[in-house]
Amino acid sequence: MQVNVKTIALSLTLAVATVAALASCGAAGADTDAAPPPPGAETTEWTIDAEFVAADGSISAASYAPIDPGSVSEPWKVCALFPHVKDVLWVSANYGNAVEAERLGIEYNLFEAGGYGNLSTQVSQTDDCIVQGFDALILGAISAEGNCSTIEKALEANIVVVDFINGTNCGESVTDNPLYTRVSVSYHETSELIGRYLAESSDGAPLVASFPGPDGAAFANDAVDGFATGIDGSAAEIEVERRGDTGLDVQLALIEDVLRAYPDVTDIFGVDIAAEAGVVALRNAGRSGEVGVYGYTIIPNLYQAIVDGDATAAVTDWTPFQGRMAISQAIKALEGQELGGRSVGPTPLVVSSENAASIEYERMFGPKDFAPVYSVRASR
């Protein structure tokens, strides 16, 4: 595989107009008014260091080369299905989707299910996209197994499926289908990175409270396994694990209960929103600085907490770039172009007090004033 290794900095200062959120689960249909194109999106060049995973599981590193707009032959229709857009991770993913759709001149529609408890809503929304004749689905799956039958249905209808960010645990009828691909950063890898960082930077024998995310979500399961790998052989131990939806209130309640029940906990590990909640819980308890806080992903409030010294470290997965990759890979598949591997995602990086100030905010999160865009009209 030959990949262009020239590094081009992505400008993520594009302003995207906001469309009105819909009342029913925030979902959008194909008739939603399209947002005006982000200025310059159709000409913006970009690339990023990435990891490509082949069908045999081998991993190679190279710069990701997005599809050339000049090679796009049709105004392809892409349906994106997200668990929700109530936190910055999914809003950043939507930003990447939207600017890349504009750059390529294709149609884009976003449906969001309203939360991780709404698998049936996401399955219904996926069915709707299949019936409406979309050419590709970008699926941020709510359930590792619960989305698989609908993925199979889409593939049987000759629709390209990009398994996006969260991942699934579907069988070979899905994973061996040439219309199926993944765009994600391995949460096993990000959790292993942060686990190793915790083990190497902590004194004594850390007792860790783990808050990986919802039950049944593939990304949360991967995080648990990866963190265990990262601390393996060290003095660190997992004292307690609690699962829950990635809402701030849910995670805050879980963490406050654990801090009361397990006063000897020395460190909090979790998904980004759990780490943010950990900072709040420790502040409320008058224990800021006493307990380390580590995230296997990162959001702006957690990033600021690291800069301020209230959190220890987290891992960036360059979410806006994942959003751009998902659109690019979908259109490459529709155009019969080489994808570079079964799965691809940006190379993750540990963000700590040592390097946080030097990392451009918009490369991690997109513009601060961006709000979800539910529809982009094809310009071809």
TrEMBL record:
Superkingdom of the source species: Bacteria
Main location per the UniProt record: other
Keyword terms, alphabetized: Signal
Domain Periplasmic binding protein, residue spans: 88-338
Gene3D superfamilies: 3.40.50.2300
Subcellular location: Cell envelope
GO terms for MF: carbohydrate binding
Signal peptide: 1-30
Cellular compartments per GO CC: cell envelope
Statement: the UniProt record of this protein carries the keyword DNA-binding: no
Family, as annotated: Belongs to the bacterial solute-binding protein 2 family.
NCBIfam families according to UniProt: PRK10936.1 (NF008185)
Protein name in the entry: TMAO reductase system periplasmic protein TorT
